[in-house]
Amino acid sequence: MKLEAKVAIVTGGSQGIGRATVERFAREGARVAIWDVDTDKGETLVREFREREVDARFFRVDVTSTASVEDAAHKTNDAFGALHILVNNAGIVKDSTLLKMEETDFDAVIGVNLKGVFNCTRAVARIMSDQAKTDQADRSILNASSVVALYGNFGQTNYVATKAGVIGMTRTWARELGRKGIRVNAVAPGFIATQMVKTIPEAVRDKLLERVPLGRLGDPAEVASVYAFLASEDARYVTGTVISVDGGAVI
Hints:
Layout: E1 7-11, H1 16-27, E2 31-36, H2 39-51, E3 56-60, H3 66-80, E4 85-88, H4 103-132, E5 139-144, H5 148-151, H6 157-177, E6 182-189, H7 195-198, H8 202-209, H9 220-231, E7 242-245
Parallel strand pairs: 1-2, 1-4, 2-3, 4-5, 5-6, 6-7
């Protein structure tokens, strides 16, 4: 129960690593707001949690829209009474080599994976910093980067650009928000067994796994456990860092 009484927002929380993070945070005692564009999956997940007497709520949020994000931030704060944790997990891919990539595909990935992180962090951090003036609760912002941000990846100009940008923003915000009582860290997952990765042809997956010393795909729960650590009091003196969860892929 390391997150007992904390309020956490998880963007893209209805599936994949986001859902695993919601599950882990709930087990650690947090109350969780799921921000997602998929209403059906989000509301279904909330119903499952409520059957287990977990305080979880769904908000339909388009992270590329400043108005949508700011509205959700205030509604979440009103619903729970405080904000302690933000996990910027929402992300998309539209892969193509540079010479074949369409501008619309580049812009779409930048919009969700980079501008979306900016929109959510700015809106939530404003509320967090105001609340930090009146209490000493630990507050944390966690950003989803990727190991491809550290070494690049064929056919992912747009995705790699966003995930490298997230690392830069993480370190900048750690400097800016630390004095306001807010820690900012990033997690860089490797090849994780999400639906997105499972769509990759088996031959390509096997080739990717040759890079991984542990020789297997990661489990979404293994990424969620790192988020849970970084959000907890155990990591109270950790900020501005990037933790790779990749089975050793970047070695």
